# Entry
Amino acid sequence: MKLYHAPKAVNPERTYNFLKAKGKLDAVELVEISIMKGEHKQPEYREISPFSHVPVLVLDDGTNITESRAICSYFEHMFPEPNLMGSDAKEKGLIEMWDRRIEFMMMAQFATWFRNTHPVMAPLENPQLPEAGAKAEANVKKFAKRLDQHLDGKDWLAADRFSIADITLFLTCGFCGVMQWKPHRDYEHISRHFGAVKERLG
# Structure
């Protein structure tokens, strides 16, 4: 298998760290793609990822899988231990609920803020929409406050154990640093959680 990976980009890092948590990095051949150099827009890359998405998992039979959550689901099936997506219906529901909340209410909102206001993104996000960025900034900060309250008294985000939802939150917090906003510095319980995941992933 080949995993097309863009280091420091949050969704590629999600699949990479999920596989790392499985202890299975040696199961794939990593191929690095530079988003800032536009390598994901090149015709040869579009042949395996028509929408220019990174990451992409290319299976040995030539099947291409995009979308980080879908790739993680594939890895969960192929390498069932340690279980990171739930072992029964209740766990599966709770873990996916929180993973999706982090993805849509934090990661996506932050990405909108970043893409529409940071100068480095101007060549890729043309035109930038500062009003959309400001609204997304308010949304993600409001969500972080509620998230910190949720983590009060909890070691992990969902189902009382380490899961993909914790990986997604950890990477999203790291991603937020590009705007000099660090929820894992500003909020007590998010900070504690961030440290626990960092130690877990090594």
Summary: The chain has two domains: 2-78, 89-201.
